Amino acid sequence: MRWDEDLFVEISDVEVILPPESGVPAALSAYQREGRLEQPVKRRKDYLTDTWCHINIARAERPWTVPSLHFEAGKTCFFCPGFEDHTPRAVSTGGDRLRMGEGSWHTRVFPNLYPWLMEHSNIVETPEHKTSLADIDAEEEANALTAAADFCREMEAEGRVPVLFRNHGWGASLSHFHWQVGALPRIPSHIQEELDGCSRFRQKWQTNVFDAIIESERARGERWIAEDEFSAVIAPFAPRTNYEVWIIAKEPVSSLAACSGDQIRSLARTLTRTLKVLYKVTQIDCLTVVCHQVPEAWNTSARSVLSRVEGLSTGYRLHFEVCPFKHWAGAERGLGEFAIEVIPEKTALELSTQMR
Questions:
Q1: Are residues 149 and 290 in the same domain?
Q2: Rounded to 10 degrees, what is the CA torsion of 206, 266, 122, 192?
Q3: Per the confidence metrics, is the pTM higher than 0.85?
């Protein structure tokens, strides 16, 4: 496609070292040249932001150690039925912020005990004490995302920017399935970088960047995983973690609040299927799912210098980023430069066969 030069920015290098005097490890024997080790490295830029990942092809050929999920057996779970009086209460209601289900509940929304976001709450999507992504359920996800969408509409009406994510495994203080939802008084810095990238792309190509990503990735096929009527699933060109997956809305909605009930249910099915397949293929049970969204009222020229000049909407698109956990060290934590052991083409190949 004509815009591929901007979407797929890659620098190919060859890093040369001398092998250990004790000999060349078997995994590197194919990269030995005249007594030296010559290892190809691909450096790739994110579609929208100035974030780079670095893929050593030799390292990527090694088996990857999957992070293990360790939860304390027998530990009291305050998100399970019977412990409702142990969870915080909302000021507005004196109890749960929202409870779905007649008689026994099937979805609860209540304040986070240690809030750092505005109106920070937990969305407990099931009364069952589920801890493995193998057990995730599409109907329960639809209930949770429906509750989240209602919250997002409320926050957007108050001029706040909704934030929605889930931690599973590492990063989760409780193993019981749940999302976290809250708001900020401003657009998160990473989302703002994406917004600016959307504006630059639209100004240059007169095309929505997310439509361009979907069209180009579908045509290339290397990182394409699946699609349905509402969303496309891809392994991003420049991932920050191994087995990173994006779920991008195909329709022009910039926030969960703008989605219809049918769209939310479709998104829930796709997200559930993606997480179940990711677990089936890799046994990954430690990850974060982050909803990237911008309120419709903020997705305008007032929020972007480039769009303000052109008088255009940024064209930001709702999407979910699934990021399995890995050990981030100095380069990732301190510099925002990401070393990747599993190339996205491998991610797409492994997952797409199971998503069909």
A1: yes
A2: -10
A3: yes
